Design the sequence.
């Protein structure tokens, strides 16, 4: 039985960065609409069961009720029975459930970089499709829900060579005393801010160093500060780091939606997969992972940063649909 999972973060796109930028707001009603279209697209191409993360807005149940009332629901919707924390822990736990459920062949994630990072803590082998509904959206893409559902159905069918449309992504790994303490999918930012507080980081003046797995001037966020100096693609077997606010040369980069600021940025230093960067703190501070402060450190504390290709398997939606078309996936048999 073809099954997929859906993780829709009700908190994505609602952090304090909305107050200091001009970012698009996707409310939970629109997320419900997107999930509805995912379900309709997926069931039309053979998905028989959809697992949904529970949340405070009851998006899974609302989708089920609405599609039933319209007499359009043909597949089974299963809202996962798990303890809710109404925080990042829900995404981590739901992703872990879906990763360990052998019936689930593809997971669709609605959120920003932070939501996908949380899911990537648990997802190792199940291919994911990402839909941008967050503040920082370098990792996920703007994607129509119907198309995402169809693509997930093609992945879940197990009829095609996944090597044609799936890429194993990079990640930044942070170690303390040789123990892996956290990860980031796009960027890790060392900041002078001493408290995690509201988590979201937006003050450029507080930043000391940025590590990235990918970088491009077309991105919004801190990775664009590297991207305006050097482009690093997801396929490249390396990442990089730069120093911020420490040199003479300045660039202009889109650090947030509608915010293009001049920032002092050093030349990028390449970090290959075998390289390590050891950071020794001169004072207290925090590390933001994919836009959100997660790690506090003390003076003289040592942390090690590595770039690896141990991220999740990410589906290229265009390529999987092209592969499906070439193999008559959309043809109705008589």
Sequence:
């Amino acid at each position: 039985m073809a099954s997929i999972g859906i993780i829709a973060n009700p908190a994505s796109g609602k952090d304090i960065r909305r107050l200091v930028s001009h970012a698009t707001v996707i409310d939970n009603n629109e997320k419900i609409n997107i999930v509805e279209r995912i379900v309709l697209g997926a069931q039309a191409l053979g998905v028989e069961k959809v697992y949904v993360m529970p949340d405070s807005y009851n998006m899974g149940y609302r989708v089920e009720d609405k599609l039933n009332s319209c007499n359009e629901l043909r597949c089974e919707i299963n809202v996962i029975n798990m303890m809710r924390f109404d925080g990042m822990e829900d995404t981590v736990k739901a992703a872990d459930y879906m990763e360990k459920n052998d019936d689930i062949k593809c997971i669709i994630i609605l959120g920003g970089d932070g939501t996908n990072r949380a899911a990537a803590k648990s997802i190792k082998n199940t291919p994911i499709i990402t839909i941008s509904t967050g503040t920082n959206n370098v990792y996920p893409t703007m994607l129509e829900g119907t198309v995402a559902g169809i693509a997930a159905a093609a992945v879940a069918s197990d009829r095609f060579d996944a090597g044609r449309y799936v890429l194993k992504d990079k990640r930044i790994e942070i170690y303390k005393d040789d123990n892996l303490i956290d990860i980031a999918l796009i960027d890790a930012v060392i900041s002078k801010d001493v408290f995690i507080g509201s988590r979201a980081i937006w003050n450029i003046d507080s930043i000391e160093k940025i590590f990235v797995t990918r970088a491009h001037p077309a991105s919004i966020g801190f990775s664009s500060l590297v991207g305006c100096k050097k482009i690093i693609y997801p396929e490249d077997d390396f990442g990089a780091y730069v120093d911020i606010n420490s040199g003479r040369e300045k660039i202009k980069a889109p650090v947030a939606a509608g915010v293009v600021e001049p920032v002092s940025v050093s030349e990028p230093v390449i970090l290959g997969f075998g390289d390590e960067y050891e950071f020794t703190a001169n004072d207290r501070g925090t590390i933001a992972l994919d836009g959100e402060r997660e790690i506090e450190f003390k003076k003289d504390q040592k942390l090690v940063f590595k770039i690896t290709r141990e991220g999740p398997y990410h589906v290229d939606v265009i390529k999987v649909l092209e592969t499906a078309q070439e193999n008559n996936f959309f043809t109705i048999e008589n």
About this structure: The first strand starts at residue 3 and ends at 8.
